[in-house]
Amino acid sequence: MNSNKLTAYGLTADMTTTNAPGLTIGRVVAQSRNLYGVQTAAVRVQAQVSGRMQNIAFGPEDFPTVGDWVLLRMPASLQDAGIIERLVPRQSVFTRKAAGTTSNLQVVAANVDTLFLCMALDGNFNLRRLERYLAVARDSGATPVVVLTKADLATDFANQLTAVTATAGDAQVLVCDATKVDGWQELQACIHPGRTYAFLGSSGVGKSTLINRLLGSDELATGGIRLADAHGRHTTTSRQLIVLPSGGIVIDTPGMRELAIVAADLDSTFSDITDLARGCKFNDCTHTREPGCAVQAAIAAGELDPKRLRSFHQLQAEQKENKELRGRAREHAKIEKMFGSKKSMKAAMRTAKNKWRR
């Protein structure tokens, strides 16, 4: 692969000037714990982050992820690991709060142009979950596109499509049925050479099946659905970047049992509510019990679903709580890096203060 062939992995003209003496630009195409698969212009290598990068990192978002462009020091032999020295500034990044009670952030994918938000039209159908995905996607810097899968299993297709279109706002909505020969052509038409796409969604919604159709082979494993609750089995267990025969670049991600938000664009996702709020009597209206609330008036008139307002309030509260948790976690990490502990920091501050007084 010569130097200009790295454009197949999304390298743009302005990025060709991103270099440093002794370092090689490459894109992270796979990740397994602390080891990364990096595609360079000449070869694919295994790599790990440098000690310097580990020392200055305060959280997961400071480390590479699939889709990242990096500058690395090439190994003397392909049997050895290269060393990732720097991250090239990201154009977009999709993050979520890590599952469970931890305040850690998980970086799902970086430098994605379009996020395909997949939701099945079977028992997995959930408008509230779609709102959550749209809010995080719009904040990521990528363009969200809603992909409805398993159209053959739709319980009420016409009404489901109407509801999704209203929820999606200005985001494009595609319908796919992977059981038909041409059931994914609408998706295929949206994919262009040199552009990067990530497929996101719950387990079992059919992400890997769609990517297999785009690949023209069953390269990615697929699994069935538990009949009891229409939830899928985890088939994709790690993220990977794949170049399609058409020239598009896709990132397949593990199915998400939950998408806890830290950063989200709620104003755009709930633009109907924010538009209504301009008519409220009070600028700081919470849309609960205040007099002259245009949002509550719209609910009373049947113009706004109260479930949508509850979802808006829930995501607002969750975002605020998780941002505060994440802020405290990063501050704690900085203190640990610099002083070892908060107690040591206070001791250092007292020492500095006493020196200043002298």
- Adjacency order of strands in the biggest sheet: 10-9-8-11-13-12
Q: Helical stretch count? A: 10
Percent strand: 15-25%
- Backbone shape: flat
Mean of all residue-level pLDDT scores: 83
Given as residue ranges, the uncertain stretches (5+ residues, pLDDT < 50) are 221-237
Class by helix and strand content? alpha/beta
Q: Radius of gyration over alpha carbons?
A: 23 Å
How would you spell out the order of helices and strands? EEEHEEEEEHEHEHEHEEHHHHH
Question: End-to-end distance, in Å?
Answer: 65 Å
Word description of this protein:
The structure is a single chain. The longest helix is centred in the last third of the chain and has 34 residues, at 306-339. With 358 residues, this protein is of the alpha/beta class. The chain has helices at residues 51-56, 127-140, 157-168, 185-188, 207-215, 266-269, 271-277, 294-300, 306-339, 342-357; strands at residues 24-32, 35-40, 44-49, 69-73, 82-87, 93-97, 105-110, 114-120, 143-149, 172-175, 196-201, 240-243, 249-252. The protein is 32% helix and 21% strand. The chain contains ten helices and 13 strands. A six-stranded mixed beta sheet has the order 10-9-8-11-13-12, sandwiched between helices. Strands 1-2-3-5-4 form a five-stranded mixed beta barrel. Strand 1 (24-32) and strand 2 (35-40) form a beta hairpin.
